[in-house]
Amino acid sequence: MIDRVFGSRYRIIERIGIGGMAEVYRATDQVLGRTVALKLMLPQYAADPTFAARFKQEAQAAANLQSPYIVNIYDWGRDDVDETFYIVMELVRGTDLKTAINQRGAINQRKAAEVASQVCAALAVAHGYDIIHRDIKPHNIMVQPDGNAKVMDFGIARANGSGMTQTGSVLGTAYYVSPEQAQGKELTPSTDLYSLGVVLYEAVTGKLPFEGEDAVTVALKQVNQLPAPPSTVYPDIDPELEAIIMRAIEKNPVDRYPTADAMRTALNNYLTGRPVEDGNVDAQAATTVIGATPTLRPEKRPERPVPEPVAIIQRPDTKVARTSVMPVATVGAPNGHNANALLQESRAKNRLPAIIVGIIAASLVIGFVVFLALNMLNSNTPDMVRVPNIIGMTEYDGERELTRNGLLVGEVNREPSDTVEKGKIISVDPRQNSLVYRGEKIDLLISSGTEAPVTKQVPNLANSDLDAAKQILEELGLKYSVEGEKYHESIEAGKVC
User: Fold this and answer.
1) Is 24 helix (H, G, I), strand (E, B) or coil?
2) Catalytically annotated residue among 96, 135, 192, 282
3) Active site residue 135
4) Considering only CA atoms, which of 64, 67, 20, 14 is closest in space to residue 38?
5) pTM exceeds 0.70, yes or no
6) Which of 247-251, 323-327, 408-412, 459-463 shows the lowest mean pLDDT across its residues?
7) What element of type H or E holds 294?
8) E strands along 389-495, which residues?
9) Average confidence score pLDDT of the chain
10) Using CA atoms, how far apart are residues 408 and 264, in angstroms rounded to an integer?
11) DSSP labels for 264-289?
């Protein structure tokens, strides 16, 4: 397969992996000059219509899913030579989560929660298109060198109502299937959350909740047995993270998290030290779906209740001047004054303290209102937070900082930059230091580094036939010109020198 070209543009460099139905190769896209992963169906399955349909299903299911946590599908096709299907995808550097668990055993709890949160983000996008992955397992979660995860292999994914059956999909991943999937029942997005719960259980304990001699035994345990709490395997697990895991792997789908966004909110709450089991999803944390296209943030923010008027309440121990009222006299008054005159005099004497008290009270109210206004302008309210300054941070550190401030990552785009180092944040939207609702999604623009020209190594064509040399250069996309003939002491006539 080495040097073989598929689709007239993808030249195979080396094999990097093999699975149950396909081999994966590192390849070069000779049109765009980038390195890609080429997934090639194994020859023994090429003529099987069931496997061919599954292979095409993977390409079609994942092609429209745009997320920083889903492996990008670039292209797919069928080879003209042996009619083998191939998928061209993003080449992800790193290791799959299963390999990491096998090598290290239990991994750091917070890191496991971060990875699971990112998988939830990927599932939220897929579920928004009504696509259920159906094969979430650590083998299909790639962890990159920067710590971010990507979900891959939508080979047995299908849209609800598509009617396509997937023979053998249960037995192939019995350790991670939900009870309803093990029983062959109709599936909902909740099945992916169960599988992710099992993955998280294994990641933080180093062990699976159910094991057995064969896949059938394990599948029956998924249906009939309750798992031991992770703390019985790993006593140091955080109780709140354990609560998230146990809710995700509830036998009844209605007892699990209602959506992937809900589970991600719980995981992010755990990571930021907030209560994880509030029973609801923050309105701003959920992804709104309009038709078939997931939006990046809600189009209309929910209406906030109008604040109650602020009241100034006087404490019992506060001393306030009191206004005395002279009773109306019915008899003659001394010094020749009658009762009405004395009353008017008394009111005049006591009006000044009352005016002073009124002025003081009004000043206090105005001052308090001004204080509240300034406080709202200069600090976060319970429902609003400021976008932190993450420009210049790596994508991973920036997301951690957003999470610590109660915010989520929205769309992630990349573009070349001559001033910002590759992999670091160029800008954010909304802008840094602006006030946004807690749970708001913040879009990131990441530097892809300086845009270097594509270079190709010119092969050594000395002593080659002219026609053969031309063909090699054309396949590499290189231009050439024939200068003519000249004498060479060691190369025969008609050959390239």
Assistant:
1) strand
2) 135
3) yes
4) 14
5) no
6) 323-327
7) strand 293-294
8) 408-415, 425-429, 435-437, 441-447
9) 75
10) 10
11) HHHHHHHHHTS-S--SS--TTTSPPE
